[in-house]
């Protein structure tokens, strides 16, 4: 019997002149025991407290009987179900309404939605919020589809800890999935159940099930950054900047190395995304056209154009595109609904890097990691580096940007990027 019940009943016996909170007398003189339902279970039981008649008008007898009854009620409240081994009598709700029986609770549970309905409601809300890109929606829906295939289209209340562990073990046992990939699946499902809990009063058995990764394993992620030697090799093998048919192949890797921008951000640039601020040419990373998107609000930023890019003739290339009547910097790239303009670039680079003898882990995104690593080694402010990369420190507006993000400060940071004679 829980310690709290012993304390409560002891208080009852020693304070007979008062009505303890766990006992009350009906207008007919019958004593009842009652207990508050934990907040997490209130949605399932449909009430804030449950009570049971002690079938006596004698207060001392009611106190003696309450020992066993309060224990039963607490078990019911914590379990979130009115079906109890010892409690076969009707449990009365707080309000003056008809008694709630076990069959009524079963009916309530039966009304809880199944996973497919919850998934669709969750996805629709995320889309209305604008929280997901088309790619994010695709990845999340695929995760939820796999979840339903594995566990079945069960009701929310049937998604127990046992089901959560079954899901985790299934994907954890796959040798071809990294810990990071497994954790992403667990996190997506946990987010779904957390949302469902807020809307339907159910629990989230996936909470806390992510696989803990040691600091040593996390540090190994630095291998995703391309080495300076590989970036120099890349620059030697890239098409010249005079490339006419597919200019993106010449310019995008170089732009990535001297801006730190994401591949998708650069591939979708329009010519009106170039502007002079404080007398210096800059790139605006933003999403002002219907076919543009940015990862988060903090991704919106200003990047001064590196002097080496200017020396390579980048401004002349952009002006040539403008004079030829183009709107976009790389009109040869075609947008895909899910991957945007970067898909075609990634597809090309997968073939190109084979000629360099690179591995699967060597990607164009590794240039962005290399930029962050180089600036970190040069001991630049993490806030300033975050501003360049579009991480964590708020959106930059172009008519009134914060002091630490002034173009003169960002230009110093950009100029610090040095890949030798590449």
Please tell me about this protein's structure.
It is elongated, with a radius of gyration of 31 Å. The protein has helices spanning 3-14, 39-45, 59-79, 102-110, 115-129, 134-151, 161-172, 179-200, 215-219, 228-237, 247-259, 263-267, 307-311, 314-323, 342-356, 365-377, 382-389, 407-415; strands spanning 23-25, 31-36, 49-53, 92-93, 274-277, 280-285, 301-304. It is an alpha+beta fold. The strands form 2 sheets. A 4-stranded antiparallel beta sheet has the order 1-2-3-4. Strand 5 (274-277) and strand 6 form a beta hairpin. The protein has 3 domains: 3-110, no CATH class; 115-214, DNA polymerase, domain 1 (Orthogonal Bundle), CATH 1.10.150; 223-415, Intergrase catalytic core (hpI Integrase, Chain A, Orthogonal Bundle).
Offer a few descriptive terms.
single chain, about 425 residues, DNA polymerase, domain 1, hpI Integrase, Chain A, four-stranded antiparallel sheet, three-stranded antiparallel sheet, about 50% helix, elongated
């Amino acid at each position: 019997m829980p310690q709290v019940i012993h304390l409560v009943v002891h208080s009852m016996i020693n304070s007979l002149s008062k009505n303890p909170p766990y006992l009350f007398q009906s207008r007919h003189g019958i004593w009842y025991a009652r207990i508050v339902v934990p907040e997490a279970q209130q949605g399932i039981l449909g009430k804030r407290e449950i009570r049971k008649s002690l079938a006596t008008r004698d207060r001392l007898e009611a106190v003696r009987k309450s020992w066993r009854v309060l224990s039963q009620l607490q078990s019911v409240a914590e379990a979130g179900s009115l079906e109890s081994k010892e409690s076969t009598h009707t449990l009365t709700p707080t309000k003056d309404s008809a008694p709630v029986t076990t069959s009524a609770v079963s009916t309530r549970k039966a009304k809880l939605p199944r996973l497919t309905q919850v998934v669709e409601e969750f996805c629709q809300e995320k889309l209305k919020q604008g929280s997901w890109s088309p790619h994010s929606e695709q990845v999340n829906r695929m995760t939820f589809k796999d979840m339903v295939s594995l566990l079945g289209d069960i009701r929310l209340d049937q998604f127990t800890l046992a089901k959560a562990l079954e899901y985790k073990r299934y994907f954890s046992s796959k040798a071809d999935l990294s810990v990071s990939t497994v954790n992403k699946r667990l996190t997506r499902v946990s987010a779904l159940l957390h949302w469902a809990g807020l809307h339907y009063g159910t629990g989230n058995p996936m909470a806390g099930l992510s696989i803990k990764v040691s600091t040593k394993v996390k540090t190994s992620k630095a291998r995703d950054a391309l080495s300076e030697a590989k970036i120099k090799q890349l620059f030697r093998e890239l098409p010249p900047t005079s490339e006419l048919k597919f200019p993106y192949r010449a310019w995008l890797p170089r732009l990535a190395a001297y801006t730190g921008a994401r591949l998708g951000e650069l591939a979708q640039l329009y010519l009106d995304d170039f502007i002079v601020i404080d007398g210096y040419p800059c790139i605006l990373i933003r999403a002002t056209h219907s076919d543009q998107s940015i990862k988060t609000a903090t991704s919106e930023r200003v990047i001064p154009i590196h002097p080496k890019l200017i020396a390579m003739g980048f401004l002349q290339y952009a002006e040539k595109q403008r004079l030829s009547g183009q709107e976009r910097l790389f009109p040869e790239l075609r947008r895909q609904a899910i991957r945007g303009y970067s898909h075609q670039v990634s597809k090309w680079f997968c073939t190109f890097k084979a000629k360099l003898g690179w591995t699967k882990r060597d990607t164009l995104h590794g240039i962005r990691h290399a930029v962050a690593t180089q600036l970190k080694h040069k001991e630049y402010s993490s806030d300033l580096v975050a501003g360049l990369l579009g991480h964590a420190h708020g959106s930059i507006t172009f008519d009134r940007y914060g002091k630490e993000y002034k173009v003169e400060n960002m230009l110093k940071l950009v100029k610090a990027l040095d890949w030798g004679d590449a």
